[in-house]
Amino acid sequence: MFVEYDPVLYSRILTALTLGFHVIFATLGVGVPLMIAIAEWMGIRRNDPHYTLMARRWARGFVVTVAVGVVTGTAIALQLSLLWPNFMQAAGHTIGLPMFMEAFAFFFEAIFLGIYLYTWDRFKSKLKHFLLIIPIVIGATASAFFITTVNSFMNAPQGFTIVDGILTDVSPLAAMFNPATPTKIAHVIVTCYLTSAFVLGAIAAFNLLKGKTHVYHKKALHLTMVTGVIFAIGTAVIGDLSGKYLHEYQPEKLAAAEWHFETESEAPLILGGILTEDNEVRFALEIPYALSILAGGSTDTVVVGLNDFPEEYLPPLWVHYMFDLMVFIGMYLAAVSTLFVFVNWKKNWNAFNRPLLWSVFAGGPLAMVAIQSGWLFAEVGRQPWILNGVMTVAEGATTSQHVDIMLVLFIILYTILGTTCVMVLRRMFKSNPVEHELEKRGLVHLNSHVSNQ
Amino acid sequence: MNYELIGITVLWTFLYGYLIVASIDFGAGFFSYYTKQTKKDHLIHNIIQRYLSPVWEVTNVFLIFFIIGIVGFFPSTAYYYGSALLVPGSISIILLAIRGSYYAFATYGAKESKLYSFLYGATGLLIPASLSTVLTISEGGYVSTESGRVQLLYGELFGSPYSWGVVILAIVSVLFISASFLTYYASRAKDAQALKLLRKYALIWAFPAISMGVIVFFLLGQRNAMHFENMVDIWWAFGLSFVAFLWATYLIWKGKNYGTAFILVMIQYFTAFFGYGAAHLPYLLYPYLTIYDGFTNETMAISLIAAFIAGLLLLIPSLYLLMKLFLFDADYVEGKKPKAL
């Protein structure tokens, strides 16, 4: 069967592929530096070399993921112009500033990462080395901040006027700080932290499940879960605010996420379910009033339904599943981390039991799934627009030939990169397990109980 | 000086920065692979590793800066170059991705691998070749805009002597710049064996680098007469470049002042690169796009320049710290300081 060549479709798939692959490494790139900083700080505060070693080992794995993050980041920076030349032309006029600043933030981070990695044994004072991670944390988070303002702008474009097809009256700051910016940035950054805590927690849980008993792993698990609780609560609060933002500025996106057809107050929240041919929701779990509360904080908030929007401006309704998946996993992560911290806090209970360890372990990959489904919801939920209300994806895309061949090339590239990255990380930590390194550094018999502070 | 000129000067400076640091990196990859094949890698392996490990990421960022910056200052370039360069651009991305990640995999993760080293060496030559096509295309005649669609004329690109001249110039320049820097680094490290070999490489590539420069200069005359005449008008810039080249090569040949020699190589490329760029103005893409009609709005220009200055204030001290710790710290360069991850 021949599919007619459509550069718009292939550009969308290729961009989704690059971003989907990049976001795995970008998420870790934003979150892991903070976790490293916390671990190194704990090592200094408690004078506990286990935490210092933890920071050091995390940093070693981190640099491999950063490498893939850098090259895929370069890829998307170039691909934006190659696949979306019309969009980038408009974006350059309006939202070029934060893109430029993102490059600066990353530059800053890259310089200090190079220094940090190679100066573990170079300073007499441990605090000096710790200070070097701070610019990395700031640079990483600032990168996320700037680039997310661009995505916010795509959702709620402002800071310019169009006269006869020409952009005028541009205000770069108004474009950057648009209505979508606060919730979007907070949501992206805190979920990067949450996901990174869970990925590192999953590694610790995995080692404990495999029968390793050293207190190092328990400390790692405890540290990641305590931070996990904090970030999970943050995620929930911001998620609620994001719902209110959508209600106000992108009601069609909220309605699509919730399969909300009729405009009404006291609107229920729909979980799961399927949609019949005549748009009837079946087999779903309905929580009464919950959508109105999510949208406006009270049950009498009127939520506009899908039937009140022109059909050609509605996103595909399967984004409902992406939205639900993201929310479900977010709640799961909050529950597991809270449970772990609570059980560990109870004096006579054992938090390191197998079911709980398995639950934490599952949280790592699940958190990554939530990142993917969240971004799919964010991007597909904005369809057909690339710049909400201003430019459609079809208008923004390239008209070039050969996007399909490029898609194939990039599928091969990312498959090879992903596989080698996993192989390299496995080999790195298998050939130099914690126990081995503890012995080498003479830290084996250091306090063998978990401190519960 | 108007905003258009400030903008293009900022961007051209970033591109020049990329040209130098990336050339060092690309050439190092090739030398590292070549010496492995000729069983001389034990001589220079340490020098290359000690320099590259802390700085490789910084290299890539120069390029990102340029790409993002040019879209910010000159949004129309996204339209013209973005549409025309889909295939060569994508190939460059793939090569850069392979190079960056396999370097990290080899350095931080795995043991030595023949495949990694081959990829690292091969991409070191292929990336400059593929990136240089952008400059070739900018001369005009390689792009058509028939029926409102920007298209690259592949036959024209692959069939033109100018285009191949630029590719060869890019490759030999990479090898010359890299060898002259590594010669200097080896001399700082007091590594006599590495110095001997790298000095030889620098001298080998000096002549090809300068002659390709001259050849491309005259090939351009046939390709784009207007640009060529503009370059002839500022002949002194290229004369300066030539003098810097002679002086640098003399110092390397004499075996003294390798630091000065490398600075002279940087001057050689600075004058030639900026001479080429200044003569290219006002065109960004002959004959479709100039810096004036492709420029962003004034508010954006001012805020980009402000962001640029603020960014520099942040970056210069940071870069200084990086160089102080890894480039100018004699003990580190000589391998007397720990370099454990």
UniProtKB/TrEMBL annotation, chain A:
TM segment ranges: 20-41, 62-83, 95-118, 130-150, 185-208, 220-239, 318-343, 355-378, 405-425
Main location: membrane
Family annotation (InterPro entries): Cyt-d_ubiquinol_oxidase_su_1
Protein's membrane topology: Multi-pass membrane protein
EC number: 1.10.3.-
GO molecular function terms attached to this record: oxidoreductase activity
Membership in a protein family: Belongs to the cytochrome ubiquinol oxidase subunit 1 family.
Full protein name: Cytochrome d ubiquinol oxidase subunit I
Organism the protein comes from: Evansella vedderi
UniProtKB/TrEMBL annotation, chain B:
Localization, UniProt: Cell membrane
Keyword annotations of the record: Cell membrane, Membrane, Oxidoreductase, Transmembrane, Transmembrane helix
Domain of life: Bacteria
Residues spanning the membrane: 6-34, 55-74, 80-98, 118-142, 162-182, 202-222, 234-253, 260-279, 299-322
Record bears the keyword Transmembrane helix: yes
Protein name: Cytochrome d ubiquinol oxidase subunit II
Record membrane topology: Multi-pass membrane protein
